[in-house]
Amino acid sequence: MLRISALSIVLLSPLFGTAQDDWNWGDQVDKAKEKNVLYTDALKAKNYEAAIEPLSWLLENTPDLNPSIYINGVKIYEALGKKETDPVKKDEYVQFGLGLFDKRSEIYSSDKNEIIERKGIFAYTFYRKTKEQYERVFNILSEAFELNGAEMNRGALVALMDMTYKNYLYKRLTDEQVIDLYSNISEALNKQKEVANASDKKKLTKYLDNVDRLLAATKIEISCDLVEERFGPKLDEGNDVNIAKRIFDLMIKGKCIDRPLALRAAEVIQTNDPTYGVAKFLGAKNQQEGNEEKAMAFFEEAASLTDDNTEKAEMYVSMARIHMKNGQKSTARSTARRALSFDPSHSAAYELIGDLYFTSYGKGPCYGQTSQVEDRAVFIAAYDQYRRAGATSKMSSAKAQFPGIEDIFNEGKTEGQSITIGCWINTTVSLERRPAN
Asked: What are the start-end ranges of the H helices in 219-346?
């Protein structure tokens, strides 16, 4: 991890008393109490300049008075820093504020995790656009992350990723370090998202999007081999779901989903923390590899894991395609209709049923060879489905196969007449002739 020397900030007395839970007024009790009232009144009145002198006296003479002098001190110097226009004076306020965090951490070491995190946020607030301070802010936030892990403030996590990006631009971090940090930060945010309520989940999704954008901004090319080398062995150690999620996320970004490790990571995720997206991926992957039974199971599982009716419909269409490929036309149509029960406007379901009808001509029980008109009525049925799907090209192809006017006349039928198609299709259409050439 990057390390730089902290600026020396002399905060009064070098010696500090023992930290206490109660107020420790020191040897000058009355004066200490007076100074405490003066600075807190000034703080309440937002007269921050007036608060400096009594606060400084307390910091020098009663450094272990109470954590509040450091907490309020930071508020005072943060407010002064935000309104100061002179860059030199502004930086003095910021440096003093950072020093207060250090002294508080030294005296009240049991609160170190929280203190370092707040110090990182404070530093980022003032120095996120100051390139000379990028390394320093990165170090503070990195230390906070080491101490707090997934419990770190979400804003601080995004700030760490921002500092990771900015330090990478100045060649202080390698590609591998950035990927590691991105993975750890994303994992922390995802852990917070797992236990968040619905409203908070949406907010955390935005934080994760910001982290993703910062990684993309580095323009680092994620190497599939690197992901396998660095994370594959970790997954082998015990099928840890968090490691699996990290691998899967990186492999998606690196376009490595055809690697066996991506499939294995997805299976670990789905076993331990099933989601619609991963189940859909596993269904598609198994279908691609010819494992149709497993593909069907994952598609069905995916449908059960979402409340979005369009997503449910998509999964049933995927199952219907497998049935159609295997010649199970009736089952394929039933499955496509199940998709339409969730999303009546799902165009892919209508198109698939149209394909089932279109390909029934000339084969099987739907081809009687006794009436050209009745046999070709399947194209009218297909056309109706393509029309609902908005598949204009297929509509044209189907219409070109409608019964000819001569066949309609010779069989004593008329346009607009209802024609019932038997076999598994078992539907009625309005007779229509094909367009003249």
From this structure: 224-236, 241-253, 260-272, 276-288, 292-304, 309-325, 329-342
Interior angle at CA 8, CA 120 and CA 40, nearest 5? 65
Helix, strand or coil for residue 428? strand
Asked if residue 42 lies in contact with residue 50, where contact means CB atoms within 8 angstroms, the answer is: yes
| Alpha carbons 11 and 74: distance in angstroms, whole number | 13
Contact 340, 398 (CB under 8 A): no
Q: State the Cα–Cα distance between residues 105 and 156, nearest whole angstrom.
A: 18
The residue count for the chain: 437
* Cβ–Cβ < 8 Å for 424, 434: no
Mean pLDDT of 182-193: 89
**Distance in angstroms (rounded) separating the CA atoms of residues 63 and 197:** 41
Q: How far apart are CA 170 and CA 327, in angstroms?
A: 60
Strand partners, 418: 430
Choose among 389, 405, 314, 301: nearest CA to 347.
389
pLDDT digits (tens, 9 = 90+) for 395-432: 999 999 999 999 999 999 999 999 999 889 999 999 99
How far is it, in rounded angstroms, from Cα 168 to Cα 209?
19
Query: Residue 346 and residue 341: Cα distance in Å, rounded?
Result: 9
pLDDT tens figures, 249-266: 889 988 999 999 999 999
With H, G, I as helix, E, B as strand and everything else as coil, classify residue 9.
coil
The pTM is what? 0.66
Distance CA 262, CA 173 (A): 27
d(CA 437, CA 237): 69
- Do the Cβ atoms of 399 and 385 come closer than 8 Å? no
**Token output for 273:** 């923390």
**65 within 8 A of 13, measured Cβ to Cβ:** no
What average pLDDT does the segment 22-42 reach? 95
How confident is the model over 368-380, as pLDDT tens digits? Answer: 667 899 999 999 9
Read off the tokens for 386. 């393509």
Do 305 and 279 contact (CB within 8 A), yes or no? yes
Q: Helix (H) and strand (E) counts for the chain?
A: 20, 2
Torsion angle (degrees, nearest 10) of CA 20, 22, 24, 30: 180
Give me the residues paired with residue 421 across strands: 427
